[in-house]
Every structure is written in C-alpha cells, then in structure tokens.
C-alpha cells in the first residue's frame, strides 16, 4: 500500500483527521496570542492562555539526536532572533475515564528564513518502539500509555529529531472553532453522501460538523487517500485564511471557550504573542510531505511499516528546514 512521491495510502481504521488539527492549532496561536484587544478581552485571552498552558516536567530528559548537526530542543525558542522551531500536533479522541489515543500525529516546522511551514503526518498505525516503554507497538498507543510525554518522546525517537513545542487538541474543539469562524468554503470535485450528509459537486459553504464529514470520507473517493487529503487541505486552507483575517471580537468569548476546553500546549502566553507577531506571515507558504510505508499484518494486527531509509528522508527534510540560516531579529 505504498505510493510514490512521499505520499501515503494507509489502510488504518482512523477517519483521516491528519490535516484538521493544523487549522485549530493555527487558530490557537492567532486567538490566544492576539494582541490589540483591550480590557476584558485581553484578560480573557490571557486567562485562556493560562488554562491551556501545560508545561512538560522540568526533569524530563531532552532528546539528543544521533545527528551531531542537530541542536537540542529549545523551548522557549529565542523568538527575538526569529529562530525556526518545531511543533508536535496531536489530535486526540478522548473518552470518559480514558485519555484515549492520538488519532492524528503531525509534526510542523516554521522557519522565517525560508518563509515556509513544513509539515508531515505520521500514520497512527505506524509500528515503532514506544520510547517510555521499550516495546514495539503502534505509534498512537504511546499517548494511551504515557500521555503527551510518551507521544513526544516516541515521535522524537522515530524521526531522530528533538521537538520544541506540542499542541494537543480534542476533536470537539475543531467543530466549535469552524462554527465560530462562520464556517468554511470548499469546492467539491464530485457529489457524495457521508454520515447522513449530502455534499453536492461544486462550491459550497460548510459548518463545523459538515467540514469534519467532508474531510473524513475516503472509501467512496475514486482517488482514495489522495482525494481525501485534497479535501482536507481545502478545509485547512480556508480556516487559515479566515483565522488570519479574523477581527470579530464579539465572537472572541466563544472561540476562547472552545480553545480552553479542548486544547493543551507548552506554549506560554508571552511565547504565543511573540510567535503570532513575528511568525504569522510564514503561514502563507505551507509545504507538506507524506511518510511512505507498507501495510502488513503481524500477529493478526494491521501495522504500517516505515523503513529506516524513509525515516532518514524525513529527518533530513526537517533538518533542512530547521537549520536554514536564521534571519536577523
């Protein structure tokens, strides 16, 4: 189930949420890091930033890459120097009395020197060593066993690259954010029905629930994962477009409530402000790749196998983005 040009055709049972979390994470940076709002709104933003702030333990071991050219993670990033940074984005489907699993695992780098955002998704069924357990398993099980620390340590080891920040998002938050932004516009390439909703061919406007359904459908798409990825990108791009132009302060309480209930990050309020002010323009150029691999059954369980050559390719792509000459602050 391997496809060329760095793309994936995965047989995982997840509903393809990989692109959706980027949009919500962008809005976290835009809304919680917003400046220029006065009085009550400013303190509401600051309170939400405090609510979602969940730093990693101070005694957590920092990952050291086997590649001597790669520096250690640097949270907090020296934003005054406009240094590049990396983020682990986790889309988590939490359940009552259960922390759930990370349905979506994405890594993103932002580099002001190249003026690019680089991102890739790691399929949830990828078989690898869980860093805090020392056992081979699906990569999304790292969160179920050890939470964000387990996911971060496992992803860092998988790509042999330290990661500066994380943003963890619960699924329900995405729908609320899209609705707060008054929906999204998409251009559907063909008509299809999915989970009780009909999506006609052509231009249309979707609310949060419809946007999720539009992005999830795969099996009725003649292009499979490729078609679904294109639809997900459409949703993400319009969310980013709306978020970067968003000035409706009357809806700020709603968006802050959604963020406060469904997002956790180790980005503090001051860092969010700096990143929004100094890095926002980098959101216009997004480059993505897909991790190549092969689906297989082991002991009656489906896994996605990524060989070392492909892991090295991803490592080098990240390294190129993060080590591009820093711009002057």
From TrEMBL:
<dbReference type="Pfam" id="PF03816">
    <property type="entry name" value="LytR_cpsA_psr"/>
</dbReference>
<comment type="similarity">
    <text>Belongs to the LytR/CpsA/Psr (LCP) family.</text>
</comment>
<keyword id="KW-1133">Transmembrane helix</keyword>
<protein>
    <recommendedName>
        <fullName>Cell envelope-related transcriptional attenuator domain-containing protein</fullName>
    </recommendedName>
</protein>
<dbReference type="InterPro" id="IPR004474">
    <property type="entry name" value="LytR_CpsA_psr"/>
</dbReference>
<feature type="transmembrane region" description="Helical">
    <location>
        <begin position="20"/>
        <end position="43"/>
    </location>
</feature>
<keyword id="KW-0812">Transmembrane</keyword>
<dbReference type="InterPro" id="IPR050922">
    <property type="entry name" value="LytR/CpsA/Psr_CW_biosynth"/>
</dbReference>
<keyword id="KW-0472">Membrane</keyword>
<feature type="domain" description="Cell envelope-related transcriptional attenuator">
    <location>
        <begin position="101"/>
        <end position="243"/>
    </location>
</feature>
């Amino acid at each position: 189930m391997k496809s060329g040009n760095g793309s994936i055709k995965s047989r995982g049972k997840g509903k393809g949420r990989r692109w959706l979390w980027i949009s919500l994470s962008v809005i976290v940076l835009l809304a919680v890091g917003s400046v220029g709002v006065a009085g009550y709104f400013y303190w509401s933003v600051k309170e939400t930033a405090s609510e979602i702030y969940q730093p990693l333990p101070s005694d957590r071991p920092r990952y050291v890459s086997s590649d001597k050219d790669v520096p250690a993670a640097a949270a907090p990033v020296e934003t005054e120097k406009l240094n590049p940074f990396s983020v682990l984005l986790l889309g988590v489907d939490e359940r009552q009395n259960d922390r759930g699993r990370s349905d979506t695992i994405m890594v993103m780098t932002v580099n002001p020197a190249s003026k690019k955002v680089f991102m890739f998704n790691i399929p949830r069924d990828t078989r690898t060593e869980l860093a805090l357990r020392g056992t081979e398993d699906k990569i999304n099980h790292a969160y179920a066993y050890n939470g964000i620390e387990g996911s971060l340590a496992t992803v860092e080891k998988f790509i042999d690259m330290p990661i500066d920040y994380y943003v963890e998002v619960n699924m329900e938050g995405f729908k609320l954010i899209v609705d707060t932004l008054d929906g999204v516009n998409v251009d559907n390439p063909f008509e299809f029905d999915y989970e009780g909703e009909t999506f006609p061919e052509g231009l249309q406007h979707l609310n949060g629930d419809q946007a999720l359904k539009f992005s999830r459908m795969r099996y009725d798409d003649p292009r499979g994962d490729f078609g679904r990825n294109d639809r997900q990108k459409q949703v993400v791009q319009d969310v980013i477009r709306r978020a970067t132009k968003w000035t409706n302060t009357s809806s700020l309480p709603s968006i802050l409530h959604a963020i406060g209930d469904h997002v956790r990050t180790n980005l503090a309020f001051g860092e969010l402000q700096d990143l929004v002010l100094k890095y926002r323009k980098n959101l216009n150029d997004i480059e993505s790749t897909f991790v190549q691999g092969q689906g297989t059954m082991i002991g009656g369980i489906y896994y996605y196998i990524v060989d070392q050559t492909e892991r090295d390719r991803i490592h080098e792509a990240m390294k190129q983005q993060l080590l591009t000459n820093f711009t002057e602050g």
